[in-house]
Structure prediction request, 187 residues.
Amino acid sequence: MLVYVVIAVPATALGLWWMRRNYRTLGRLSLPGLSALLVMFFIPHLALDAAIEYRPLSSPIALVGITLAALGLVVCGWAIVVFRSVKKMFCLDHGALTTAGPYRWSRNPQYVGYSIFLLGFALIGWTPECMIALALYATIVHAMVLTEERHLARVFGDAYTVFRNRTPRYLGWPFPAGRQRARDRSQ
Prediction:
């Protein structure tokens, strides 16, 4: 498990560097940039897999895990369907700003849904190391989200600013028109 954590640091640095470079120069991800990003994103999954103890689904925690994993997949799948573009999903084309469906409650419902799935998966075979793997995943995703937000602000301008001010980054109720959180005003 420790090897995945050690590998995650340079892989994340390289993936984020490539992502930022591609967004600035091309306005989208290149195939090598997407590959670096996928490697960066996949490492926490390997760590989680190494941390889980697979056992029969007999405990209440495992049943909660199954429920959360299923819910997470539904949310992630719904967000992907509403997104309507595989190219857009993999940052190869920015298309139009998506603000409908689950994007009313989260600017990042795919990440939220997948995070709920991973939490549920971790609960099925919970070990203390699972918390490290989940924290690694959350850190990497948050860094990706911050990079994506800067790119979306450049691409969509005022439309994204309105969306950002109205919609929580991860999960919550939409803010009333004209009202925004103090920390979002400074961004």
